[in-house]
Amino acid sequence: MRQPVAVYPGSFDPPTNGHLDIIVRATHLFPKVIVAVTDNSNKNPTFTLQERKKMIAEAVRRYPTVTVDTFSGLLVDYMTRKKASVIIRGLRAISDFEYEFEMALMNRRLNKRIEAVFLMPDEAYTYLSSSLVKEVFSLGGSVSGLVPESVEKSLKRSG
Ligand code: ADP
Q1: N- or C-end of the chain: fewer Cβ atoms within 10 A?
Q2: Residue with the nearest Cα to atom 23 of ligand 1?
Q3: How far apart are CA 106 and CA 149, in angstroms?
Q4: What predicted TM-score, i.e. pTM, was given to this entire model?
């Protein structure tokens, strides 16, 4: 059987320990995981594409089967170029479900050979999001334990 390459796409603005939890779970299931940072300019990211890529790369350094890349355009086109067949997404509370379901069905419509796999993070990260991290940090709260150390340093530099 061919070993599927998995792609974990997202904004990662910035990456959190919830994202990292999903990445580690994916490494247990797939021989190769590509974390693909999206250049989705209509989301108006706080960190540049290269900053986000660098922060994740630092956080996953100890996982040799994980690579970090960037992409723009359609995810399914990027996946075809990478010969990848599995999309990894994280599912937190019920609030993620509708959007994720919609995206998965659209991606399937665009390429029926691509399968989406949803992973649940540790319950400690169920209510953790990049936007919440940015909000807490901007109001002077501690984000220690919520984001990888490299991200905490970047936040301090940017703030
Ligand atoms: P996007 O803009 O593509 O939603 P995000 O960086 O917000 O990018 O999220 C990427 C993926 O990671 C999504 O599937 C999202 O549900 C998941 N995710 C985000 N935060 C967490 C978390 N705390 N735990 C598990 N999955 C998460």
Answers
A1: N
A2: 18
A3: 35
A4: 0.95
Q: How far apart are CA 60 and CA 37, in angstroms?
A: 14
The whole domain housing 53 covers 5-158
- pLDDT tens per residue across span 14-37: 999 999 999 999 999 999 999 999
Active site residues: 19, 43, 92, 130
Give me the CATH number covering residue 61: 3.40.50.620
Which of 11, 20, 22, 49 to mutate to test ligand 1, by most ligand atoms within 8 A of the CB atom?
A: 22
Q: Please name which of 88, 71, 78 lies closest in space to residue 22, comparing C-alpha atoms.
A: 88
- What atom in ligand 1 is closest to the CA of residue 91? 16
Q: Tell me how far the alpha carbon of residue 130 lies from the centroid of ligand 1, in angstroms.
A: 8
- CA dist 67 and 113 (Å) reads 22
Q: How many residues does the chain have?
A: 159
